[in-house]
Amino acid sequence: MNRSRRLSVFSKRTFVFVLFCACVLLVAADLNQLRSGPMLAPADPGTPNDSARTKSRAHAKAEKPKVEHLPVGPTAAAPDTAPAPERATTVTDADVEYIAAKKLLIPVANVTASQLHDTFNQARSEGRRHDAIDIVASQGTPVLATTDGVVIKLFESERGGVTLYQLDPSGRYVYYYAHLMRYADGIAEGRQLRRGDVIAYVGDTGNSGAGNFHLHFAISKRTGPNQWSGGDPINPYPLLVRKGARAVVS
């Protein structure tokens, strides 16, 4: 075999050997990739994963401010106008008839029956019901005794702010005035009141909300001796909207 032929045979063998080695390396690489699983694309650092988004939403929900007392009147926000569940009460038709016969005065000067809105059954926070009506008026408008009675309690609370509790002459019912700016001169516990007496002035104290001036007015039936709060509520709205209930104070 001459030199030229020997070189040709050597070149063919070298090529086959190199090709065989390349195939072995490719097969080995494929097997290694199968064992280690598919390659994953790197996560985008600017996009939070589902868990992070869930935590972010939960944190934002937890820090959402709680609104206790929304604006009153016909424009009150929808979440605060849903009716609250009914509950047991000792109030009877006879109780309502007795109070109706007293011809209660609208307890805010110069407010007419057409300006009143029935907010008695509106829901409030923590599962509460409003159990009262809100009478919108300017700051400092005189608040009037709705009927004869006696001041049984002057009290300042977190929710009601400056408040006054008036006991009916029968001793069975309490009239409640809240969010007052201040009491009228001479008002004190034990003070006898006559229908139409100025007892206080409209304000925004308690949880009313700054600038949300109105009188929170409620009526309740006492369920225990010497009770001045916590009685069974009676809706004041139908008792105040009768014709001629307007009070005019110069």
Structure, explained:
With 250 residues, the protein is α+β, with helices and mostly antiparallel strands. The chain has two domains: 1-37; 78-240, Glucose Permease (Domain IIA). It has helices at 3-36, 50-62, 93-101, 237-240; strands at 133-136, 142-144, 149-157, 161-167, 173-183, 192-193, 198-202, 214-221, 232-234. The longest helix has 34 residues, at 3-36. The radius of gyration is 39 Å and the shape is rod-shaped.
What tags apply to this protein structure?
250 residues, alpha+beta, Glucose Permease (Domain IIA), 9-stranded antiparallel β-sheet, 4 helices, 24% helix, 21% strand, rod-shaped
Report Rg. 39 Å
Strand content: 15-25%
> What is the total tally of β strands?
9
CATH class of the largest domain: Mainly Beta
Q: Looking at this structure, what is the CATH superfamily of the largest domain?
A: Glucose Permease (Domain IIA)
Major sheet summary line: 9 strands, antiparallel
**H and E order:** HHHEEEEEEEEEH
Discrete helix count: 4
* Global geometry: rod-shaped
> So, CATH architecture of the largest domain?
Distorted Sandwich
Which residues form runs of ≥5 with pLDDT under 50?
37-71, 73-84
Number of domains: 2
From the N-terminal CA to the C-terminal CA, the straight-line distance is 138 Å
Helix content range? 10-25%
What topology emerges from the helices and strands here?
Layout: H1 3-36, H2 50-62, H3 93-101, E1 133-136, E2 142-144, E3 149-157, E4 161-167, E5 173-183, E6 192-193, E7 198-202, E8 214-221, E9 232-234, H4 237-240
Antiparallel strand pairs: 1-8, 2-7, 3-4, 3-6, 4-5, 5-7, 5-8, 8-9
